[in-house]
Give the backbone structure.
Amino acid sequence: MKRRSVLMALGGGLAAALGVPLARAQQDFPNKPLHIIAPYPPGGTTDLFARTIGECLQRTWGQPVIIENRPGSSGMIGASMVARARGDGYTLLIGSQALYSVNPFLYEKVPYDPVKDFTPVSLVARLPSFFVVPATLPVNTLREFIQYVKERPGQIAYGSAGSGTAQHIYFELFKLQTGLDLLHIPYKGSVPAVTDLIGGRAQAMMDFGPSVLAFVRAGKLKALAVSTKERSRALPDLPSMDEAGVPGFDNATWFAIHGPAGIPAPILNKLSNEIRNAVRSPEVRARFETQGIDAVGTTPEELASRQRGDAIKYADVIKRANIKVD
C-alpha cells in the first residue's frame, strides 16, 4: 500500500475512533452539572429566569444546575465569561437583548462578538414595559400626559434604571415619536428609580412588570399604557401605547439562553427543546403572567433572527436619539 493510502486509512480510522466517544458524549448529555451564568445581581428579573429554567432542567435531567451571578459592566462581564467557555453545552448564559442588540452600539469596546462568540439556544420571555406615573400626577391617560408635558416643556422628568437601559431607550423612542421635551434622570437600577417616582421626584417611567405592577395594584402608581401592540394579560384593561396615542409603538425586552460558540447540533437541539418545553409549560406561564411577563420559547434560528432584527432597530434609535452611557 502506498504511503499516502496508508496515511489516509490511518486518518480515517482515527477520526472514526474519536467520533465514537464524541457521539456517545452527545447522546449522554448531560452527565454532569450545568452552569447558568446570570450577568446581573441576584434577586432581579434575570435571576428569576435563571432559577426557573434551572429548576426545570434539573427536574427533567436529574443533574444539578448551578446558577452563578456574575454582575458588572452592564452584563458584559458574565457574557464574556461564557464567550470564553467550552462549547459543550454545560455553560449557558441567561441575558437580555441588551447584551447582543444594544451594548455593541453603546460602548466603544465590547469584550465579545455578539454573533460569533455565542450559540443562540432559545428565547425565554418577553417583558413589556408599563408606562407609569405617580398616583398624584393629575393625568389619567397617555394622551393627557402628552398634553401635560407639552404645556410644560423641559420641566417634566422621567426616570430610568440607568443610561442605555431598556427603560432609557424606550422613553427616548417615545420622545422621538411624540416630539416631547422631557428631562432624563438615570438611576442605578429600577428600585431607586421607582422609589423616586412614587415620591414624585420623577414624573414618569417605563419599566417591567416585576418592578412596577405591585405599586400599580397598591394605588401608588398609575399605569397609562403598555409598550407592546398587544395588551398585557396582567392588566387586560390597560391600553397599548398604539391604542393610547403613539401609533406603531411596539417594544418589549426579551431574555434568552445562549451558549458559547460551537455547541454541537445534537446537544443544542436537546437544550433548545427542553428549555422551550419548560417555558411553555402551564406552570411557568402562570408564574410569569402574574408579573406581566410573556413566556415564549423558540428555536435557535428564531432567536437568531430576533437578535439580528433588534440590532438594526436599536442601533437606529441610539443614533437618532444620541443616547450615551455615563
Notes: The domain at 129-244 is CATH 3.40.190.10 (D-Maltodextrin-Binding Protein; domain 2). The first strand starts at residue 34 and ends at 38. Confidence is low (pLDDT under 50) at residues 6-10.
